[in-house]
Specification:
heterodimer, A: 103 residues, alpha+beta, 2 helices, 26% strand, globular, B: 407 residues, alpha/beta, 2 domains, 8-stranded mixed β-sheet, 7-stranded mixed β-sheet, 21 strands, 32% helix
Chain lengths: 103, 407
């Protein structure tokens, strides 16, 4: 899904990093968001809902709607659309948030 | 760490304010949730009027970042402000969880330049993966250079959706069409062809191209707008090679685990369905329902608010220097009402100078007078207006201030 040619914008070479999501390894570019990296890898669904288990992907892209929440190992919920992807990051769909504890 | 000024939001308004204050020797910290400064500038890409060429927001952002750095602005990036207390303590944490405990930032003056959020517009199927807002599509396409989909439908006909449809097309996306949203309790006038056309008319004054003049053309039809929507070409009217369907609405988004298609039908001038439904295969859908000010922190700070037509939502009441009803708290940019980046930047300059004056580091108070004028000029000559009543809205807001809070 990456844009290889653009008539107006300059495409610069970026530093590649690797990370895992649900135990699969992916590559991304340093400085981009987790959601953008996954989208470029054609991974769209980030989690399922607590009540009906339907899929959710990034929606607003600016950290406002929280639809893209994702689990970052050793920490917890982060917003995939505004959290930068990092080398060796370990991510999963498990929404280990308050809802699961209280259900 | 105590600062003279803390600014929340590193878009065009926040950055310009930071530059003005730091340039004059003020100690400024600029805080943004994103690690990349520039806010929505980073995704902006459109052709300007009068052969001024392309507006590449990323480049403008980079120039501003370089300038802010050269004046020694401090940055807290990838940092969210989750609470504020008066006179002023900001509570922050990092978005990636790296702060082991909350941090505090204190300051004498505060500027909220938090920008806007996109409104949601529920239609059946809108929660499916690969349905996103046009703003998210803009971030993916222009900021990260990742295509939202290969075959994409855009729902919602407005200046922003048209500009982002074009940006997607430039990046190689097959944009199958720009449609109206289905008429329902949430869609209001967004689903009505006649209303949409009327809105376009008011925005065509400084129209950069034929596209934005379309609304104007329709309104000049002798047979009237009602007829214009009826006789609108079945296959749409192409703008930049993208079919624009002013009288067709997406009734449903379909798919199992993610978007697979849309269900479309023709509608009358009021958005009521006229024809049988047909399906179109797409692999992503972008919805545009308009922007509204991002004002949560101003609520926490105790600002008084008002909803004025033309400003696209509820805004903190402020004076002409951009100070709110809470002394030492200023606002700039889209938190004061939805307008373009150029207006935001001028507002940032004004807020910065107003505070510089209060800090006693402004040499010439006439600079503030000029900055107020600049905001007006840029507003009145803007290529893109997000609301036809924005100028009137500003005047009303000014009256509200004068009547209730002025001198």
């Amino acid at each position: 899904m990456r844009v290889k040619n653009h008539p107006i914008l300059t495409i610069t070479t970026q530093k590649e990093i690797t990370f895992t999501f649900n135990n699969e390894t992916y590559s991304g570019y340093e400085g981009e968001s987790i959601a953008a990296s996954l989208w470029a890898n054609e991974v769209f669904q980030l989690r399922t809902t607590e009540k009906k288990s339907t899929g959710r992907s990034m929606f607003c892209g600016i950290g406002n709607c929280y639809d893209c929440r994702i689990n970052l190992a050793d920490y917890g919920m982060v917003r995939a659309c505004i959290t930068p992807v990092e080398n060796q990051m370990v991510l999963s769909s498990g929404d280990e948030g308050v809802a699961n504890d209280e259900l | 760490m105590n600062y003279d000024v803390a600014i929340v939001g590193g878009g065009p308004a926040g950055m310009q304010a930071a530059i003005e204050i730091a340039k004059r020797g003020g100690k400024v910290v600029l805080i943004d949730e994103n690690v990349q400064l520039g806010g929505k500038l980073n995704g902006q890409l459109h052709e300007e009027s009068h052969n001024k060429g392309w507006w590449i927001g990323k480049q403008i952002a980079q120039e501003m970042i370089d300038e802010a750095k050269s004046y020694g602005v401090s940055f807290l990036l990838g940092v969210q402000v989750w609470s504020i207390e008066k006179d002023w303590t900001l509570y922050t944490s990092s978005v990636n969880g790296k702060d082991s405990e909350p941090r505090r930032v204190t300051c004498d003056f505060l500027i909220l330049a938090t920008g806007a959020i996109e409104k949601g517009l529920p239609i059946p199927g809108w929660t499916l993966p690969k349905v996103l807002t046009v703003g998210a599509a803009q971030v993916l396409t222009n900021q990260y250079l990742v295509r939202p989909g290969n075959r994409v439908a855009v729902i919602g006909i407005d200046i922003l959706s048209l500009s982002i449809a074009r940006a997607m097309k430039l990046s190689g996306v097959d944009v199958v069409g720009i449609y109206l949203p289905a008429k329902n309790v949430f869609s209001n006038d967004l689903s009505e062809p006649l209303q949409v056309l009327e809105k376009f008319q008011s925005m065509t004054q400084h129209a950069p191209n034929k596209l934005m003049k379309i609304g104007g053309i329709f309104l000049k039809f002798k047979i009237g707008r009602e007829m214009a929507t009826k006789f609108y070409p079945k296959n749409g009217m192409k703008v930049w090679g993208i079919p624009l369907y002013i009288n067709q609405a997406v009734q449903e988004i379909k798919g199992h685990s993610e978007v697979e298609g849309i269900v479309i039908s023709r509608v009358d001038g009021k958005g009521n369905e006229l024809s049988k439904r047909r399906e179109e295969n797409v692999d992503a859908v972008c919805i545009s329902a308009g922007l509204t000010p991002q004002n949560e922190l101003a609520v926490l700070a105790g600002c008084k608010f008002v909803t004025v037509a033309g400003l696209s939502g509820s805004v903190p009441i402020h004076d002409e220097y951009l100070e709110t009803t809470v002394p030492t708290l200023f606002v700039a940019g889209n938190i004061t009402g939805i307008e373009g980046a150029k207006v935001s930047r001028k507002q940032g300059k004004l807020a910065g100078l107003s505070i510089a004056n209060k800090l006693g580091i402004l040499n010439d108070e006439n600079e503030i007078v000029d900055a107020i004028k600049e905001v007006h000029i840029v507003r009145e000559t803007a290529d893109i207006q997000f609301h036809r009543n924005v100028i009137k809205g500003r005047q009303n807001l000014k009256k509200i201030w004068q009547t209730n809070y002025g001198g």
